[in-house]
Every structure is written in C-alpha cells, then in structure tokens.
Amino acid sequence: MSLFNFGHDATETVPAWRELSIFSAYRLFLATTLFVVYWLKLPPEFLGSEHPELYSQVTLFYLILAVLLLFITFKKVGRYHANTRTQLILDIVLLTLIINSSGGLSTGLGSLLVVVVVVGGTLIPGRQSAFIAAIATLAVLLEVSYSQISGDGVTKYSHAGLLGATFFATAILAQTLSYKMKTVRLLADQRGQDVNKLAMLNQHIISSMQTGILVLDSHCRVTLSNRSARDLLDIKSEYTDIALRYFSPILAEQLTKWKTDLRATFDPIEIKPDLPEVLARFTALESGETLVYIESATALSQQAQQMKLASLGRLTASIAHEIRNPLGAISHAGELLAETHEGDPATTKLTDIIQRHSARMNGIIETILSMSRRKKVDPKVVILALWLESFIAEFCDINRIKKNDIELAVYSPLARVSIDEEQLQQIMSNLVNNAWHYSSEQSDVTRVKLGLYTENNDVIIDVKDNGIGISEEIQQYLFEPFHSERQGGTGLGLYLAREMCQANGGRLNYIAGEGGACFRVSFPIEKQEVLH
After folding, report:
1. What is the 3-state secondary structure (H, E, C) of 194-239?
2. Which of 242-251, 265-274, 311-320 comes out lowest in average pLDDT?
3. End-of-domain residue from the set 324, 355, 372
4. Which of 286, 297, 498, 499 pairs as cysteine with 268 (C-beta 3.0–4.6 A)?
C-alpha cells in the first residue's frame, strides 16, 4: 500500500476533505505556536531545552510543511486516504523530534500525539487508524529508548507503554464515534435529500394547481402565491410582502369579515370586468398565517346555467303546445280577417299588428326551444385565425355586406382553443349581427372590427362596432333574457352567447370604452373546463 498514490480516491467526499482541511489549519496553528514561543523565549521554558538547534530546525520545517500541506489539502491534491496517512505520519515523526528536543515525555508534550491519533481514528477507516496508533506508539518507544541510551539511563518504558495503550484506546474510541457520526451524517443527508425532493414535489404540485393559493402573514401581507392565484387576481409578477388590499380590496374585506366570524361564507367576487368570478376560502394555520384558496367560479356557474337551461327546457316543453296552438289560431284568424276585409285600411293595419306580434312571439318560442334542446358540448381544437377569416367571408356573403366593412386584426395567428364549433358559430353570429346593426354607415371608420390576440394566458376575440356605444343604464341589463333595445329583437342573443361561452369554459364581457361597443370573448389557453 503506497503512501504516495496520486489521483482521486473513489471513496473521497467533500466533507472528508473539509475535515482534513480543519486539521491542517490546526497543524499550522500548532507549528506557528511552537516556533514563535521558542524564538520569543516565552513560557514554557522547557521547549527546545534539551536540543535547541534540533528544536529550532524541526519547528521551522514543521511550520513550512504545515503551510504546504494546508495548500495541498485545500486544492485536494492526490488521493484522500494516501494524503491523510502521509500527513499524520509526518506529524508523528516531527512531533516526536520536538518532544525529544524538549526533554522527552516527562514534559507532557506526548499529548500532542494523542490529537494525531484521534484524527487518524476519525478520518481513516478500519485498520488504517490502528496503523497510525501503532506508528505513534513505536515513535514513543523509540524516543524513550534513545533518551535512555543517550541520557541518564533511567527506564521510562512504563510511561511509554501507558501512552501507547492510550493511543490504541483513543483510536478505537475515535473510530467508533466517527462511524456513528458518519452514519448519522449520511442519514441526515438522505433525510435532507428526501425533504428537498418533497419540497420540490410540493412546489410543482402547488404551482400547477388550478386552484389559486395565497399565504398571508399576520399583517395580511402576501408571502407566497402560485401561478393560478396570480392569474385569477391579475397579479403581474410574484410579489411578496405586499398587502392583500393592494391586489384586491374586496378579497381583503372578506378576509377581515372572516377573522371576526370563522364560519362566515362568501359569494363569488369579480376582481375585474374581464376576469372570471372567483370564490375565496380561508384557513388559519398554526404558524399564525392564513391560507387562502381561490377558485374560479366558472365551473359552478356552468352547472347553475345548465340547471337553469334544463329547467327552462322543461318549462317550454310543457307549455309549448299551450302557447303555439292558440298562437297559430290567432295568426290564422288574422290572415282570414285580412283576406275578408282586403282594401280596408283600418282592418289591414290591425291585422298587420296581429301578424307581426304573432311572428315575434313565435320567434321567441322557437329561440327558447332551440336553447332548451341544445346538444351537449362537443369540443374540438379550432385555429381561430383561419376560422374567423372563413366566418367573416361567409357572414358577408349571406348578408350582402362589403368585405371591407368588417375588419379582422390577427395578432396571434397560431391561437387555438378547444370549443364546440357549432356553438362558436352561434356566438360570433350573434355578436357580429349586433355590432353590424348598431354600427354607423355614415362614418369613414370600418363599421365592425374583430381582433384576435392573447393576454394573461387567455385567447381573446374582441368584436367592436363604430356606433355610439351602450349607456351605463343599459349595460346592467345587457345579458339578461328578454331585454332588448333593438326593434323586433327577442333579447336572447347576448344571453345565449354568454351561456354558450360559459358552457365551453369561456367568458363573454362588455368592455366599456370610447368609440362604439366592444364585446370580448375569452378562453383560457392551457385548460378549459367544459361541461358535458
């Protein structure tokens, strides 16, 4: 087994080299102390008293060697075990010379060798630590033998034997403690790796959750948030130590009410007009922090809308015959009356009123029935840029509109969504029909503009006309059924458009602004909740 074997040991570790570096630093401190104390004539006076010249040369060499070995250890030159064995043997040899030149074991300097043996038992595995203890014992015996031969001839082997026994006992104890410490360290490292993996897994799960997570400290400041929470609250980046009221005053108000009554429940809130409604739930943590779960109310809204439609369908199915049969009779009677009194202006005016309102009633019933019989959502991936171009061309042909009267601006040509294509057709038809009806043909501006782009993980379609816009009084009734400012309208177009958007996991909102009315259809890019 060579003491000088260069290369890297397969068993060497960073902690082992670090421990050897600590001992190297101790060696440098010891060598410096022994050298400085002697040259400055500081106590104890026995240092170098027996052989001053030998002591001065050995301590100087030991100091230079300590600096060199510290550099080698920091640079991790050679193999760890060979390095350690070589350094410890050099320590034993030089310290034995220092002990001999200072008066022998009676000075108590033999305890310096105990430190070397302890380090050997700690840093070197198995029988190699016993080898270091044996080398130290042999060095002590040689020093005693030399002192007896060259000195007064007094036998000191009992002292050397006791010190040698101490070396071996110390080596065994150090080896045992080192083994236990390494076992504990390996176990701690393994547990640390497990904790890190678990933390990374938790972070991945939380970051990919569709439910938003906020952690608030005792002062209602945000200390942690996941991406879903930032999307739902329209937080642009991962802010920390910012008060919740800065992001959402309404949510902060709910939190204050919850702290006064932990059993309180809250209705969904709307952070911004173009964002989905969210439902917040609060939980107190043992650390004094508050965990806030933020969920999109889209799924609940979809279920409620589906129940509403189902109820409406059952209602219309039960009264269809009761209304349509008398309505048909009224319409037919009006036609007969008009034929009987043909040429009478007064009768013609009255029969026209009957026919017009009968047709309007029949249209309302047909619309409601078609809505109640609406098939299940059948989503398919649709590339919106191509689809919108085709839709506009078809719309213009059917309604005999000049193609330059409807403009399409595509800012995200690859945007795609998963949606029922037939329902997308109905949504866009309703919106573009309304926009065209309320647009102004006297303006030099394009009458209807459609914009396709992505924003905040949403695919957005804006439909805007060049009309006068919608007043604030009317805006609150926009999406209510049977409410229409349009002559002959049923008031169900926007209502149905929003219902179909929600059924496909999207949103339809009116965006107030200058220069006409703007309706915005939004669909999430990553995941859309679709009701079947």
Report:
1. HHHHHHHHHHHHHHHCCCEEEEECCCCEEEEECHHHHHHCCCCCCC
2. 311-320
3. 372
4. 297
Which residues, including other chains, have CB under 8 Å from residue 141's CB and lie 6 or more apart?
157, 160, 164
> Which residue blocks in 383-492 are alpha helix, DSSP H?
384-399, 421-438, 472-475
| Nearest to 15, CA basis, from 71, 70, 80, 65 | 80
- What does pTM read for this prediction? 0.43
Asked if the structure places residue 6 within a domain, the reply is no
Is residue 505 within 8 A of residue 523, CB to CB? The reply is: yes
Residue type, 109: L
What tokens were used for 411? 């800012």
> What does the block give as tokens for 130?
């016993």
Closest CA to 302 of 13, 530, 1: 530
Q: Which helix or strand (DSSP H or E) is residue 461 part of?
A: strand 458-465
Take residue 202 and report the two structure tokens written for it.
Answer: 């938790």
* Mean pLDDT of the residues in the chain: 80
Identify whether residues 304 and 292 lie together within a single domain.
no
- What is the tally of structural domains in the chain? 4
Write the CATH number for 321: 1.10.287
375-388 mean pLDDT = 84
Structure tokens at 248: 């959402």
Q: How many other CB atoms sit within 10 Å of the CB of residue 181? A: 11
> What b/e string do you get for 110-142 counting C-beta neighbours within 10 Å, with b at 16 or more?
bebbbbbbbbbbbbbeeebbbbbbbbbbebbee
- Going by pLDDT thresholds of 50, 70 and 90, the confidence category of residue 265 is confident
Would you give the DSSP letter of residue 376? P
Residue 308 sits in the same domain as residue 285: no
